[in-house]
Design brief:
11 strands; about 50% strand; mainly beta; seven-stranded mixed sheet; four-stranded antiparallel sheet
């Protein structure tokens, strides 16, 4: 079964930290780029961070230096450590897997992150 399941969202004060986790089916995790996207109310979904199977990362400018993406190939998990959170980080965060060579994307259902100022 192909699935991505996010966890770790919640309510946090500005300046605080959260760690998001995404459990992925191995069939879509192995060898593929994993990522986190977010969508705030009234806005389009945007890239937060991606991490290839080879270890190459890409971050949105707005989160550079504050967020860190990582993955555990043993556990088929991808993580997003978020530090120094700001009110503008409030959004639903989605886990993503992009299947290499095909462009096919899989999405989780999302986890809400709310940062109070």
């Amino acid at each position: 079964q192909v699935q991505l399941v996010e966890s770790g969202g919640g309510l946090v004060q500005a300046g605080g930290s959260l760690r998001l986790s995404c459990a992925a089916s191995r069939i879509i995790f192995n060898g593929n780029a994993m990522g986190w996207y977010r969508q705030a109310p009234g806005k389009q979904r945007e890239l937060v961070a991606t991490l290839t199977s080879g270890g190459t990362t890409n971050y949105a400018d707005s989160v550079k230096g504050r967020f860190t993406i990582s993955r555990s190939n043993v556990k088929s998990m991808v993580y997003l450590q978020m530090n120094n959170l700001k009110a503008e980080d409030t959004a639903v965060y989605y886990c993503n897997a992009e299947v290499r060579y095909t462009g096919v994307n899989y999405w989780g259902r999302g986890t809400q992150v709310t940062v109070s100022s």
